UniProtKB/TrEMBL annotation:
One of its GO terms (molecular function) is hydrolase activity. It comes from the Bacteria. It holds the Pfam family Abhydrolase_1. The keyword Iron does not apply. It comes from Floridaenema fluviatile BLCC-F154. SUPFAM superfamilies: alpha/beta-Hydrolases. InterPro entries: AB_hydrolase_1, AB_hydrolase_fold. This is Alpha/beta fold hydrolase.
Length: 250
């Protein structure tokens, strides 16, 4: 029997990975899941194509199609990969990814930075409120550091001078699209835009709340939707892992 994972969590935003951990812990009780990471360095060009090639190199060792999962830009990478290599993907789960899949928090941030007469610091503070809701001053400072780091190290294709767009299109593999009813980045109206591109068996699910990082705030609910989509029985092996070092609240 292969020791390779059945599911693969994609992460191209290392600074944000702590927000993925609670859901990864829940999923690990149901399926063998691995995490694939791409770390962007300051000295290399930002290229989704390079990341796709590296992901394909990794999956060459996989003897069966995998279930891909990704949040935001990581989901964009999974979508682009599934379009190019559908034979290697059993299913695709997208979290906070709209039919125009390049739209992420950084796209909103740079658009506002270009339009509004305010400083970077003021705008990032506003982004914390938009992404996480009201938080204590200490938590705000920690999240600000995370967002600053994400601007420098994530594979998001956006900058102050250029914002990238990908047109909607179908993907041939089964797809689950999840979002949150109170997310302003991929709002419910935007999420419903997937309806024109869904196949039989594809699903859209909205978490009642949780904003852009709903999978962090409500990992059990999101896990239930994903596992039901996969139609997988739970594993008997008990698995545990540590959560993030700090908590944010709704």
């Amino acid at each position: 029997m292969s020791s390779l994972p059945n599911a693969l969590w994609l992460n191209v935003s290392p600074a944000l990975q702590q927000f993925d951990r609670p859901l990864l812990i829940h999923l690990s009780h149901h399926v063998a899941i691995a995490q694939w990471e791409y770390c962007q360095t300051p000295d290399e060009p930002m290229s989704l194509e390079v990341a796709i090639d590296l992901l394909d190199d990794y999956l060459k060792n996989q003897n069966r199609p995998v279930d891909l999962i990704g949040h935001s830009t990581s989901g964009l990478l999974g979508l682009l990969y599934a379009r190019q290599h559908p034979e290697k993907v059993r299913s695709l789960t997208l979290l906070s990814v709209g039919p125009y899949p390049a739209v992420d928090w950084q796209a909103h941030y740079y658009a506002q930075l270009q339009k509004l007469p305010c400083s970077r610091e003021v705008l990032l503070n506003q982004m914390v409120n938009n992404l996480f809701g009201h938080q204590s001053p200490g938590i705000i400072r920690e999240i600000l550091q995370i967002l600053e780091q994400d601007l420098m190290t994530s594979l998001s294709p956006h900058t102050l001078f250029r914002r990238v767009s990908f047109s909607p299109s179908k993907v041939s593999v089964p797809m689950l699209v999840c979002g949150s009813a109170d997310d302003i980045i991929v709002d419910p109206y935007t999420l419903e835009g997937w309806q024109s591109w869904l196949k039989s068996g594809d699903r859209i699910w909205q978490c009642p709340k949780g904003r852009y990082f709903f999978h962090y705030f409500h990992p059990q609910k999101v896990c239930e939707q994903i596992v039901d989509f996969w139609d997988l029985p739970p594993l008997s092996q008990d698995r545990t892992a540590s959560l993030a070092n700090f908590k944010v609240s709704l």
